[in-house]
Amino acid sequence: TFFCLPWIFQHSFSLHVLKFKSCGIMPLCVYPLSKHEVCPAENYQHVLALVFAVNEVNENPNILSNITLGFQIYDSYCEAKMTYQNTLNLISHHRKTIPNYKCGVEKKLVAAIGGLDSETSSHMASILELYKILQITYSSFTPAVSEKDHISSLYQMAPSEEHQYTGIVQLLLYFQWKWVGIFVTADDKGETFVKKLTQQLSRNGICVAVTERVVNHSGFGDNGLIEKCQNMVESLSKTNVNVFVVNAEKNTKTGLQWLLLIGRMMSMSPINKVWVMTSDWDFSSEPYHKDLDVLNFHGALSFAIHSSEVKGFHRFLLNLNPHSEADGFIRFFWQQAFGCQFLDVETEEESCNGEEKLESLPGAFFEMQMTSQSYSIYNAVYAVAHALHAMLAPRTKQGEMVHDNYLRPQKPHFQVMSNMVCQRTHTSIGLVKFNEHAGDAIFLNEKRELEGGFDIINWVTFPNKSFLRVKVGEMDPQARQGSDFSIDEKIITWHQSFNQVGPNCSCSRQRKEGEPFCCYDCTPCPEGKISNQTDMDDCFQCQEDQYPNQERNQCISKKENFLSYEAPLGISLALLALAFSAITALVFGIFIKHQNTPIVKANNRNLTYTLLISLLLCFLCSLLFIGRPQLQTCNLQQTAFGVIFSVAVSSVLAKTITVVLAFMATKPGSKMRKWVGTRFSISIVLGCASIQASICIVWLCTDPPFPDLNMHSLPEEVIVECNEGSANMFYSVLGYMGLLALVSFVVAFFARKLPDTFNEAKFITFSMLVFCSVWLSFVPSYLSTKGKYIVAVEIFSILASSAGILGCIFSPKCYIIVFKPELNSKEQLKKRNKYSHFHTSLLGK
């Protein structure tokens, strides 16, 4: 018994008889409908995949052991008329198209495999459905073909088209390509593709910026159409859309290849785009594509029905013999592929010797690896074979299917979900399961579609028109959410024109009023915010310890900001503080050495020592402000500075009051004499310092200073600072110290003209003037600076005010002690001061 598996191609092939003599098969049912000889190279691998699969089935003793499969191959010529005629020939006499009548060799037609597009399959199904003949198509039925649901005998050896739309959206979202174009043919199928895909893209925030519609390639001989193509090439080369989704059915990919060829011939600007193509994509090998530059598709991405390597197919291709009479296609393919003619044809071209190597052909002309379409055909043959095997298997009395070991594998893979009636037998085909030879899980769902996914292919092309298919990812709709889409972008090879695909600015969208959602301006992120993806709806704030980079597309960790000893400013201030401390210590040593001289004894020697010691501590306490703030240093900084400075200013005030009281006590009958002395001066110092110490104690007990991280004052740095805790207490300390200085200044100002050789009042006046000027300028400077410069301002104010007191009060005395010692005597005092009898009595106090 011979079963004919007719195959209706959508592409042009020679219709010469294809004979296979192996396994005792006689020539079957293949007669030409036209004497036109057209190029058979395109999709010739599909024919070979069919032959290879049929041979495997016939040589397999575990399936259809007593039955040999045969087949017929017809061409549809890409038109409905020829498709209908050839389909009628399948169910008619082998010489005449007479439906429902047969004579001669009986053909038991049980299944048809074809075609590569939905239209061809639909035309075939309209006839085959009447006879309940199983039809397996190896392409996807587009949603436009609604009659598929009403054709019970039609099965699809390809995943649902809807899964491919989902995969395209996932791919675009993965690379954040939200400004894309669509390339289709100007027909109903193209419009359906645009409508369905645009809906899904819009729901996911992807904008279709432009839709290019190419006319059917059959009309390219028209000069008007060529001009339109030139305009389209120019438009594609100038558009700012870098990514195009191509509905890669036959007319679309042919039109796209034509456009690229026209652009090259016209020396127009190259169309450098990232092409994202559907699963129908392959490189066509029609004669007018011999000059196609495959480099235009370098780095392209396409979907492909999942396929695996089929063992033995490569060896099968290498063993093809162009002189074989069993294959009516191979001579025409060979002549076209290698550009030669066999000797039995009169031609001036080079003769074919049959020794040419198929593996030397460019991949754009013939692939040695089984394509996804050929893999679907291979699976379709096995599906029919196993369905026949199951149909012919013996049944139990209950009518259940009996499967042998081969039909009961550990992992069932194929399933026919409905009853299929074979012509004449009307045998019911129940549940059929089998292990596909390549090891993949193959089964159909309740919609009679292949339950599978897609591979994501990266096309790497070379100047010699060869190419590599590199699998870079996959889309499996049956996987759990989150694992249904995967891609390894590290192994993707992009076109050399693209360092980065899509917009290279980080921005947020600003919608244009009155325009569609995809029309917007790219607005740079405001200060302090970033957008780490292109075309985000809004920018977002970095974490507190981070700040945006200059491009505002990444957050960078902030550096710590404090006045350290390693910084030049910190080193300078520390050296300056140590220098003034050393000078103060030197002055103190001079005074100790000359402690019995009149100039040291004048105006209370103990107050002078107290002032010098407090000034020394003031210079040293400035070192507490340098370095990373710690809890102990924060507590000591302001309190130690406030108390020590209060002691210094109190000593100055006591000196000033001592001078005033000394001259008031010289008046006859004055009661001020009892206030002149060391005890009163010490009381002033202790009293004034105790008030400041009390303020500091209250401060430390209620809301003390503490180390703090200020994240917001500086955009790119974290300020490590001592938080004052209570700002009121801080300004109370400064205010009280300023009050003491102001009182000292006023008293000294009025006492500056009192006659005395050693009168310090005028020097104290200048020192308090410097002190008040420094601290009055400190307040606005403190409030206007940030970070470590606040600390530097305070240190400078401490050093400047202390140096002012040291310089104004002690530099004249040191000058006399060191350089004018003759002036530092009682005799000199008596000569220059009429009140010397009183002051002489005070020198020892």
Automatic annotation (TrEMBL):
SUPFAM superfamilies in UniProt: Calcium ATPase, transmembrane domain M (SSF81665), Periplasmic binding protein-like I (SSF53822)
Q: Identify the keywords attached in UniProt to this record, alphabetized.
A: Cell membrane, G-protein coupled receptor, Glycoprotein, Membrane, Receptor, Signal, Transducer, Transmembrane, Transmembrane helix
Q: Where in the cell is it found?
A: Cell membrane
What PROSITE patterns does its record include?
G_PROTEIN_RECEP_F3_3, G_PROTEIN_RECEP_F3_4
* Stretches that traverse the bilayer: 569-592, 607-627, 639-664, 676-700, 733-751, 763-783, 789-810
Q: Which GO terms describe its cellular component?
A: plasma membrane
What Pfam families does this protein's entry cite?
7tm_3 (PF00003), ANF_receptor (PF01094), NCD3G (PF07562)
Query: Taking every annotated instance into account, which residue ranges of this chain make up the domain G-protein coupled receptors family 3 profile?
Result: 569-833
**GO molecular function per UniProt:** G protein-coupled receptor activity
What's the protein's topology in the membrane? Answer: Multi-pass membrane protein
Which family, according to UniProt? Belongs to the G-protein coupled receptor 3 family.
Would you tell me the protein name for this molecule? G-protein coupled receptors family 3 profile domain-containing protein
Species, as recorded: Podarcis muralis (Wall lizard)
